[in-house]
Amino acid sequence: MKIIVYLSLDPQKAKAENLPVSLPLLREDFEDAAKKNKLDPDMIIRGLSAQVEIGKKVEYYLPYLVYFLYDKARSYMNAGKLQEAKEMVEKAANYKKDYRYPFHLGIIERLSGNLGQSEILLKEAIAMNSEYLPIRIELARTLMDQSEFEETIQICKEIIELDPSFTMTYLLMGDAYLALGDAKSSITLYQQALAIDHDLQSVHWRIGVAANMLQKFSLAENEFKISLSKNEGGWHVKYDLSYSLYKRGKIFEAIQLLSEIQRSGVETPEVLTEMLILQKTIGLYEEALETVEKGMDMEITEEGFLLAAIDVYAFNGMVDKALKLAESLPSELANSRKKLLEFEDGWKKKIDLKEFIRLIDTSKPEVKNKIEDVKNGLVTERQSFDVTMLSILTEVIKFHGLHFYSAESILTRSAMAFSGSTETIALFIFLYRIYFYTHALDYKLEDAIEIVIPQITDISWKMGYEIAKIFEAEELTDIEDMSQKFESPVDVAKFFTTTLVLLENEKDRSEFLKSLNIPDVVIELIKIY
Question: How many Å apart are CA 396 and CA 115, to the nearest integer?
């Protein structure tokens, strides 16, 4: 026989926790609660169930019982115990079936992967109670999972019209716009959510992702760092931030973040691929080779990883391994890499980096300091640039010619050693690839530039963007103004893009170059083309 004991509660506390002021409990639960000074939901459900079973004050106690049964169902959902959640929902419906029944079942079906059934149930719940906005929120979530982005947006607009204070609405709507590729609208919506609740979780991360899509890498960096300060998103935030930093030329910071992710035990294909690309980009070929071997052990088959791995093998002089790995790629990609590898043709000659020191003007203190670092065998993060560094490119082309990987290897390591800037790497690679495409592959100059621009954008977004602006312009920029600006690698890249295109139509190239009043080191390099 069940013995019920009634626990008197403070009316305000009872109201706050949705409890009756006289709470029925089974005697054994009452004694247990007294010992622990704590009530748990199961005690409350058992007591209310017993109260309803005896048939006394059912109209008063039944709403509380149904509420706590659904509350228990939600607890099971959050714990991933979907069968137990469904049993609780069915038990609640046995007492009273209202809009909460299809509402909770709709969520369970979505979590179970039955999206079509989830949509049907949630729409049924809306038909039963159109004013309860959380149903529409859950319907929007189900539609998002079904990739029904336009309908998700429409549902969210309806919710905002009814109550503009629901922050989740703006997040879902922003996610839908982001999925459609409209990152600008998504940022606006995420910022609206923050305006309502500035402590809202995971919003700064979302803004960062959208900003990356818009190539607003400074904004992305800032938002991801705020997200990290709030301990949101785990390693994924660091991963996304590493991309923003990379695009901003902060490649050492990006590598450091990826290393932190790996040290935390995360060795996913995407993390290894990103690390490999960064290591390859700045000429850390031995470290990159270790990353390749890790990826091979994990049997990573993504094309991005395999392409980078082929390059790393080639940069380490392991051409046979590179050729073998190329066989695993689709024929078009395989053939493009094989063609580059063929140009190595057993070439083994090398240049010592220190031989280039004599070519560089060290009158700038930052350049001199960087040279001292090289002499002392130090790798530092400080950056410098001087136009005389173009002499390195001239020497490399004369020495390595069309031996693609040998040339790019020494150019990348030289740029990193003497300049420390990914923009200088991008400049050297840009100019070398134009030379290679026009001399080895017989591309017309403008076709070569068009092909190389996206390749360079992967190294320096800013340089790729500036070159593309010049190349796509109907009229080329006044070259006389440009020839006075050799302060940065981007300035030089813009100058060469314009000059090389203009030279195509010049009958007397020597006179044209003399008229530009440019340094001899620039003229010597242009002549090679």
Answer: 60
Q: Mean pLDDT, to the nearest integer, of 125-146?
A: 97
Structure tokens at 344: 């190595």
**Closest Cα to residue 44, out of 90, 79, 75?**
75
Tokens of 292: 């390749």
**How long, in residues, is the chain?**
529
Enumerate the H helices of 200-234 as residue ranges. 203-213, 217-229
CA dihedral 522, 524, 526, 527 (to 10 degrees): 160
What are the tens digits of pLDDT across the range 169-214?
A: 999 999 999 999 999 999 999 999 999 999 998 999 999 999 999 9
pLDDT digits (tens, 9 = 90+) for 294-303: 999 999 999 9
| Percent residues over pLDDT 70 in the chain | 97
Residue 25: which H helix or E strand, with range? strand 22-26
Q: Which residue has the higher pLDDT, 469 or 175?
A: 175
DSSP-derived letter for residue 357 is: G
N-term to C-term CA, the chain: 99
Domain ranges of the chain: 353-528
Show Cβ contacts of residue 313 under 8 Å, excluding neighbours closer than 6 positions.
Answer: 289, 292, 319, 321, 322, 325
Structure tokens of 122? 């949630």
Which CA distances in Å does 477 have to 258, 449, 467, 481, 501?
Answer: 40, 16, 11, 8, 11
Written as one string, the DSSP assignment of 108-171 is HHHHTT-HHHHHHHHHHHHHH-TT-HHHHHHHHHHHHHTT-HHHHHHHHHHHHHH-TT-HHHHH
Radius of gyration of the chain (CA): 33
